[in-house]
Amino acid sequence: xxxxxxxxxxxxxxxxxxxxxxxxxxxxxxxxxxxxxxxxxxxxxxxxxxxxxxxxxxxxxxxxxxxxxxxxxxxxxxxxxxxxxxxxxxxxxxxxxxxxxxxxxxxxxxxxxxxxxxxxxxxxxxxxxxxxxxxxxxxxxxxxxxxxxxxxxxxxxxxxxxxxxxxxxxxxxxxxxxxxxxxxxxxxxxxxxxx
Length: 195
Fold this sequence. Notes:
Structural class: alpha+beta
Distance between the termini: 73 Å
CATH topology of the domain at 57-192: L,D-transpeptidase catalytic domain-like
CATH class of the domain at 57-192: Mainly Beta
Number of helices: 3
Strand order of the largest sheet: 7-12-4-5-6-11-10-9-8
CATH architecture of the domain at 57-192: Beta Barrel
Low-confidence stretches: 1-30
Largest sheet: 9 strands, mixed
Strand content: 25-35%
C-alpha cells in the first residue's frame, strides 16, 4: 500500500519540475518566427500558421536582431518604461549553428563561465557575463562581434557588463530575424547624438 501511495507523489513532482511555456526545451527557430510589431509588442508565427501576440509593455527585455540579412546585428536593452537605454553590436550563430528565435526568460547567470560544449583548450573562461536563455545552452555573453558563434549571442566586451548587471531572471530575451531599428531610432538618437 505504501508503494502505491508513493508513486502518485513522484508523478506530481515530475510534472511540477517540467519546464514552463516561457522556457521552451525545443529549438524555437524550427517553428517560431518572432516579429516586432511595435516597441514592446511581438507577433509569433509557428510553422502550422498559428499566431500569437506577445505584449511586453511594463517589462524589461533585451531584444537581439541577429546578424543575418534583413536584421540589424544589434541588441537593444529596453527598460520597463519602454525606453531603449543601451544598444550595441552582436554576432549570432553561424549558418550551421543558427541562434534560436523566440521569446525566452533568462534562466541562468554566471559572471565567469567556460563553455561546456566548446571549452577553451587553455582553460580560459570564454563565456563571461553569461546569461543563458535556453535549456540547450544558448546564451548572451561577452565575445567577439567580428566572428559568428556556435549559436550564442556575442555582445561586445564594452557593452556586456551593463546588460549583465541590469538583467534579472525575469528579464525576457527576444531573438528575431527582423529589424527593430524603426522602433529604437528615436531613443538611440537621444542616447548617442543629442547628448
